[in-house]
User: Fold these one by one.
Assistant:
Number 1:
Amino acid sequence: MTSLHYINSKLSDAIGILTVDEGDARTRLAKALPKIRILSTSSFPVELQKTLIG
């Protein structure tokens, strides 16, 4: 399991990119995706994994 600090860092970075970086939505999304893509469901605590899976 990945540390919650690491998960928070990646998600915070992605949110920052999506909300305040320059460029159109596609540009910002392309920049944010690598931050999110490295997080798999198994990276999260078990309690959150159930929510992520659906």
Number 2:
Amino acid sequence: MTEDQEEISAGGIIQTPKGVHDILPVDHEYHTFIKKVVRHRLRQAGFRRISTPIFEFTELFQRGIGADTDIVSKEMYTFQDKKGRSLTLKPESTAGVCRAYIQNGMANLPQPVQLYYIEPHFRYDRPQKGRYRQFCHFGFEIIGESDAALDSQTIYLANLINKDLGIADLFTIQLNSIGTPQSRKEYAKVLTDFYFDKERSLCEQCKARLKTNPMRLLDCKEESCGILAQIAPKMADYLDEESKVFHADLKEYLDELGIKYVENPNLVRGLDYYTKTVFEFWDSAEGAQNAIGGGGRYDGLVELLGGGPTPAVGYAAGIERIIANMKREKIRVPHKDVIHIFVAQLGKEAKKKCLSLIADLREAGVKTMGALGKDSIKTHLRLADKFGAPYTIIMGLTEVREKVGIIRDMKVGTQKTVPYEKIVPEVIKLIGKENLDKYSAGELLYG
């Protein structure tokens, strides 16, 4: 059996491909909680949700992210459709959101346009701790206006979401300015000169980066590259005046908001579209190795993709990495996946009655599970215990004939007989109206 065959099948059981994973019910509790927090905070701030396609034309990412970035050159899942067009599973969302902004005429809307997303993404990367080939990001973008106050709001909102999730104290906000494209171009020449006679000390990846994207040498995680990065010329010394003023304003606003940050002159981020502000949330203990998210300003991206000159700023975070940190800190999340009542039955006539009873209970907002198999009542009661149901309704042939049902308190062990037509109101009384999971269309729309 080849290595590929072993990866596909273990002991005759087909496995998930390397680098992807099932999201089991216990993890969906975390996903649901994180999504609720993100939706709440961003709606509160006036953002509206957008979803872009899972795949786009490859050119979007080549042009938007940069052909020489690691993402485009090594990590994209690219394929041809039946007409020979090159398509790519999206490795990130900002380029797609900007494409949607242009294509759908959002420049005609009141500016800035504030959008957020919660989406799966795909990168052919080496699987490791907190790094998958299919992963979920949430992110948000403010498109159409340039002001350092918007950058401060972006960082503030990201940090606020982390606070709501209970992980803000685990991370430091790393902050830098990488200036305008012109000042960055001049700085890249300075870096190339600095590294000219030091190539032998670089890792193989950085030797290639030196020719294509020298600024990426500054955030390499290899020890020898990191030592050189510390003594390399700093971007701050080559910033244009506009970027210096913008960065100073941003720090003033962050100070006003009480947001603590660490100035990191080596922070550049791995995407070509960034200008001026860049920031990341680094693990206080593990640094960039366990960063959960980052963002920055990208004033040239919309124009690069065919739109007019349009400033923008945004942020994105990895949900799987956030969950790993929440679990590490033993943060429990609230969830509603509880059962209010279990329905046990015996015999065909009882089963028929229970089918409509279960439907009526659910319609009333009672979370109801029914054992509709042919097992004994004793087996059904054991199931009710396993699912943690506080109450069980028991119906057999006698109960059907007498038009009643037995409601059993599973914790105390007591039970009482209730007329069939009064079972639903009695159950509602037992579990409390405030615990019902019932929403009308109006409540869903406006509640």
Number 3:
Amino acid sequence: MKNLYSIFNLNYDASLLDVCKAYQKKCMEMPSFIFYYTKILKIFINPFYKLFYDSLLFQVDIRLLMLFPKSLNEDDEYELAMIIFYMESLKDYIYDSKYFSSNKRYLLLLENWYDELENILISLKGYIQNFYLS
């Protein structure tokens, strides 16, 4: 079974920007898995989820893995802002597909995905805001 790092083709020490780029690339390659990729992105951008996942994956004490996302530099901040813009456009585009479906299961999945992606975008914007405040 593949781990989340191999699905996104990332190294263990990948930066926040690398994770977002991998998400964007995977969504472009396989749009039908976008809901799944969003769940993976949620784990990678939340420092506590990532810490817990890494401790389970590498079977080590969670206290040894206190590696939170590295701080951004100016170039990374710009690229991350562009990816956020892409993700917001994608979110709105896919969410509009609700008007073309009457499948209740799909609509519920879509609503949950929309809420998750909205929370992810808030977190990513928080990283950019922290960059300017630091």
Number 4:
Amino acid sequence: MRDNNEASWTQVVDNLEFMADASDLPILLDGDTGYGNFNNVRRLVKKLEQRGIAGVCIEDKQFPKTNSFINGEAQPLADIDEFCGKIKAGKDSQSDPNFSIVARVEALIAGWGMEEALKRAEAYRQAGADAILIHSKLSKPDEILTFAREWAARGPLVIVPTKYYSTPTDVFRQAGISTVIWANHLIRGAVSAMQAIAKEIHDSETLVNVEDRIAAVNEIFRLQDADEYSAAENIYLSAANEKRSAVVLAASRGAGLEAVTADRPKVMLPVAGKPLLSHLVEAFKKERINDITVVGGYRADAIEKGGIRLVVN
């Protein structure tokens, strides 16, 4: 979706809940302008705390906002007092003393200059902001370093070096920057990779050339913690639902069946229009036996593998 508040704050919070379930790392929400006035910020903070989110960053632009890199100079900034009211409302609403509200200053992006940026940052600090995020669209860190020097460590400073990404991180450390957010490079990288993979599949009409460039299925299962679910099944599912397994011994050609098993084992002989093995698999599945191992030997290559696991004797 576009960076124009097209997603409602409740949709954002719903996604955050899944993220908090999946990770123990602290999550800082990019809360745009706070999704409205002081009252929206109050409710947002409460809902974020309920989901274990560590903090929210709000920016001093007007709602609905537009991405800072889209004609940023023409974007109006919020009134200082009104934005300070949002910060105070958020801090007064939090119950977790460790919940953080980061105030993002857009004055440099909007072309208002260094003096205005410092003025706003100080006002937001006095309103209770736990940190200041100073933003710049220049390809060099000059503005940021000047701001950091003038700011003189009055409070934690956060930056987003989307444009000045080539600056060594040690430069930021020496300037007293507390936190660096590489905001969208992961998303942009993922989009680029998905587009490349999709084009390759479309053009080649095969997966042969992409399998070694994508995550293994087992890696997806690991990220989903599939092993934990399997362990929980053993604890909580009743005996009636206990998984059962079947083993089909199908390694022989079949004594006396040589005339019809030259190219297949006896388990693949047709009975009533389909292989004997298919009848067996259907019978197992009707009894909720889905873990089926077939032991092949003679002409194991001719055994149809649908719905079974084939091992060769």
